[in-house]
Design goal:
Number of helices: 9
Number of domains: 1
CATH superfamily: Luciferase-like domain
CATH architecture: Alpha-Beta Barrel
Structural class: alpha/beta
Mean pLDDT: 95
CATH topology: TIM Barrel
Helix content: 40-55%
Strand content: 5-15%
Low-confidence stretches: none
Oligomer: single chain
Order of helices and strands: EHEHEEHEHHEEEHEHEHEH
């Protein structure tokens, strides 16, 4: 079982003037603690579940590029990019750039987008749900084409590219891994089966059913279900002195029993670094064999 750190809140005690230093410390501490991957949200305003929109939020790919320069091992990704935030050709180029400059540590985390308030506020396109999913599938096809030797044009319903040139090419082979976020049974999990290396599901009592649905989609498209990495959101609250560690280990054990290989989420009070130290000392060794 692997652990992923999701950094979704940049409103820390030191304020904006210390954001770069605090983020460096967090990323390096996560790498030292044994986390396999680090993600940031692809939002431009803070989301309601985390705080008011006025709270600090950093642009995702600038942030990942910064973290890449401060780390050496940990994989880097968004959880997840809204497909309508960037044209797919530009998105593929950005992820490729991150992959090259991080020595092959980039992932593409992507989804259909949902934050209409943010999009309208900053003038980003936000078409209806059905169209966003159409754009998501076209974006996946464009990225895969740009991460291949095929430089031909792309003609889709929503995107037209004259030449899918991508130089320098990605270091990750055959391409940066693709994670599709969301648990929609009819569209999202079908796209996972058809295009993705990993899914990311929300925790809840229906997790086992969601995996069954994914397995069914894999059968329909001729994909090996076991080739898809199953990731689940999990918020780590170790407590002030690690009093919650055993519960966390038990929870992760149950998730591993369902077939998940990555628990990925926020670490409560991460800016203090103490929770990351506890996880590195106690959680990572305990779950490494799961």
């Amino acid at each position: 079982m692997q652990l992923g750190l999701h950094v979704s809140d940049f409103t820390w005690p030191g304020g904006p003037s210390r954001l770069a230093t605090d983020l460096t410390n967090i990323a390096q501490a996560a790498e030292t603690a044994g986390f396999d991957r680090l993600s940031v949200m692809d939002h431009l305003w803070q989301i309601q579940v985390m705080g008011p929109p006025e709270h600090e939020m950093l642009e995702a790919y600038t942030t990942l590029g910064y973290i890449a320069a401060k780390t050496s091992r940990i994989s880097l990704m968004t959880l997840v990019t809204g497909v309508v935030y960037r044209p797919p050709g530009l998105l593929a180029k950005m992820v490729t750039t991150l992959d090259v400059l991080s020595d092959g540590r980039a992932w593409l985390g992507i989804g259909a987008a949902w934050n209409e308030e943010e999009s309208r506020g900053l003038g980003l396109p936000f078409p209806p749900t059905a169209e966003r999913f159409e754009r998501l599938e076209e974006a996946l096809r464009i990225c895969l084409q740009m991460w291949s030797d095929d430089e031909s044009s792309f003609e889709g319903t929503h995107y037209q590219l004259g030449r899918t040139l991508n130089s320098p090419p990605n270091l990750s082979r055959p391409h940066p891994p693709i994670l599709i976020g969301g648990s929609g049974e009819r569209k999202t999990l079908r796209l996972v089966a058809q295009y993705a290396n990993a899914c990311n599901l929300f925790p809840g009592p229906d997790l086992e059913r969601k995996l069954d649905v994914l397995r069914s989609h894999c059968e329909q498209v001729g994909r090996n279900y076991d080739d898809i990495q199953k990731t689940v959101l999990y918020n780590f609250d170790v407590g002030r002195d690690g009093e919650n560690v055993e519960r966390i280990i038990d929870d992760i054990g149950r998730l591993a029993g369902l077939g998940f290989s990555v628990a990925h989420g926020r670490v409560i009070n991460v800016s203090s670094l103490r929770p990351l130290e506890i996880i590195g000392e106690r959680v990572v060794p305990a779950v490494a064999h799961l």
